[in-house]
Amino acid sequence: MAYGVPDGLDCTLKFTDSTVAEYESATQLLLDQVRWSTTLISVDAWSDHSQSFGPELLATLRFLKKLDASQHRWRPTGMGVRLDPLNDEHWEVARRFCPWSIHADFWTDDYVAAAAQVHDASEVVFASSCVRDANRLRVDLPKSVSIAEWSR
Question: What pTM value is reported for the model?
Answer without folding.
Answer: 0.89
